[in-house]
Specification:
Low-confidence stretches: 1-13, 496-508
Strand content: under 5%
Order of helices and strands: HHHHHHHHHHHHHHHHHHHHHH
Number of strands: 0
Number of domains: 1
Shape: globular
Structural class: mainly alpha
CATH class: Mainly Alpha
Largest sheet: none
CATH architecture: Up-down Bundle
GO molecular function, one term: amino acid transmembrane transporter activity
Membrane topology: Multi-pass membrane protein
Protein name: Basic amino acid/polyamine antiporter, APA family
Main location: membrane
CATH topology: Amino acid/polyamine transporter I
Distance between the termini: 5 Å
Pfam families: AA_permease_2
């Protein structure tokens, strides 16, 4: 059976009312058709296997909570910071299995935005997509800000340092965080050149990242003091929960992998495998490094400490060259996070543009490079400016709340499709259904509740801006809303092989 081009009605003609439009779901067959045919331009190139997908996930995840915000998280939880990582990792795992099922079922770019559109309708999809814009763009900026700490540690080995005016944001007494701006711009240039090249460079950097963290553990355990874990909960259970909410920021990587659905060779098989494998790798290393760090230094030492792992190595070995090697490796590790998460941001906006909810420029794919060049340049420039002028703490918390909300929606999407579309072929199924997605949703809500009032105010303001943009642009330009009722019913009725991108591509 051939999946034909999707006819649409004239923009604005015969559109459903507001309530009906907000609830109108995008047919999965239409998503896959657009992915295979390059709706609005050339299709993205399918070049990723399970290794590249896993490395995208690990690259976007591993390192953030340890290399960047450890110094800000340990004072909240004390020696129990490793428990915070376990709690956050468990919450992420509950959502990861839901992502794995949805990634195999809806193998397109867009991640939880696309999953929400297929299950809960345009209104919730817009909210989810807007949360993902917050999650990805702000997390890239936050991680890039943290890179500046390690750049200064690297220069410090040679007796040099960036002046405060070029190392700190205006809120911290500086002018611009130059290191953060440069790292984002370099990642932007690499992504413009091509996704395949970016993926291989990321894979190499991930290997370096894992190596330096294992090396840190080996050195830190030589100075291990079990007494540093007493008392285990100096700030109480509330402190552990607060730290878990903050370090959840460290687990957004597998979400980035799911944005590669249109560039995977066999997404229905490889995306679930990559998501689960990356979660296992990342959580194991996070807990190991946290235990090693607390064992080497009492928890009070971390308060206000920047680039904590480098300082532990330097104080333990008294060898500046070791700190230099680690600092350089840390900069590369952070660069891989910036690269992969920025990649995910551009693919989210590409999907939203394809649906008409954001301007078409974000969805234009270059036939020469197979990448959304204009969208990448716009996003990269905006993120670079954010990284240069906003401090780390506010960025990290804003990222966490957007991530948690998007993850909760994916858990709900799994429940919806299990109940309403049991006929769809699933290469991976959430274990212990419906307990797992229900727990995943509740866990995300619990961690969101532990974030501060200021973070909730920022999130509320962000949502109000998003609602204004939807009514100002998205509602009038939505392509799903422009479908005639007959076309919409026909597309919604398609099941089975039409959800397989290889079948659509072959025209079978």
């Amino acid at each position: 059976m051939t999946v034909s081009a999707t006819p649409v009605t004239k923009a604005g003609a015969g559109r459903p009312g507001l309530g009906a439009q907000l609830l109108r779901r995008k047919p999965i067959s239409q998503m896959v058709e657009e992915a295979g045919n390059g709706e609005g331009g050339a299709p993205l190139r399918r070049s990723f296997g399970v290794l590249q997908l896993t490395m995208i996930s690990v690259g976007a995840t591993l390192g953030t909570g340890i290399l960047v915000i450890l110094g800000e998280s340990v004072p909240l939880a004390g020696p129990a910071i490793w428990i915070s990582f376990v709690i956050a990792g468990f919450a992420a795992l509950l959502s990861a299995v839901s992502y794995a099922e949805m990634a195999g079922l809806v193998p397109v770019a867009g991640s939880s935005y696309s999953y929400s559109y297929a299950t809960m309708g345009e209104g919730m999809a817009w909210i989810c997509g807007w949360c993902l814009v917050l999650e990805y763009a702000v997390s890239v900026a936050a991680v890039a800000v943290g890179a500046g700490q390690y750049v200064n540690e690297t220069l410090g080995v040679f007796g040099l340092a960036l002046p405060d005016g070029l190392a700190l944001s205006p809120a911290e007494g500086g002018t611009v965080n130059l290191s953060a701006v440069v790292i984002v711009l370099l990642a932007m240039v690499l992504l413009v050149r091509g996704a395949r090249e970016s993926a291989w460079i990321n894979t190499a950097i991930v290997a370096v990242k894992v190596g330096i963290l294992v090396f840190f553990c080996a050195v830190a355990f030589t100075a291990f003091n079990a007494g540093n874990f007493e008392p285990l909960l100096p700030m109480g259970a509330a402190g552990v929960s607060a730290a878990a909410s903050r370090v959840f920021f460290s687990y957004i990587g597998f979400d980035a992998a799911s944005t590669a659905g249109e560039e995977a060779k066999n997404p229905k098989r490889d995306l679930p495998r990559a998501i689960m494998l990356s979660m296992l790798i990342v959580t194991s290393i996070y807990v190991l490094v946290a235990v090693a760090a607390i064992g080497a230094r009492p928890w009070g030492w971390f308060d206000g400490t920047e680039a904590a792992l480098v300082q532990i190595l330097e104080e333990t070995t008294h060898q500046p060259w070791i700190a230099l090697v680690f600092a350089v490796g840390a900069v590369l590790a952070i660069a891989s996070i910036v690269l992969t998460v920025l990649y995910g941001q551009t693919r989210i906006l590409l999907s939203m543009s394809r649906d008409g909810l954001v301007p078409a420029i974000f969805g234009r794919v270059s036939r020469r490079t197979g990448t959304p060049v204009a969208g990448t340049l716009i996003v990269g420039t905006a993120v670079a400016l954010t990284a240069g002028f906003i401090p780390l703490g506010a960025l990290a918390d804003a990222t966490s709340i957007g991530t948690l909300f998007a993850f909760a929606l994916v858990n709900v999407a799994v429940i919806y499709l299990r109940r309403n579309r049991p006929d769809l072929k699933r290469n991976f199924r959430v274990p212990l259904y419906p307990l797992t997605p229900v727990l995943g949703t509740l866990m995300c809500a619990y961690l969101m509740a532990n974030l501060g009032a200021e973070t909730w105010l920022v999130f509320g303001a962000w949502m109000l801006v998003g609602i204004a943009l939807y009514f100002g642009y998205g509602r009038r330009n939505s392509k799903v809303a422009a479908l005639s009722e007959q076309d919409y019913r026909e597309l919604s009725a398609r099941v089975g092989d039409e959800t397989d991108p290889e079948t659509v591509k072959a025209g079978l």
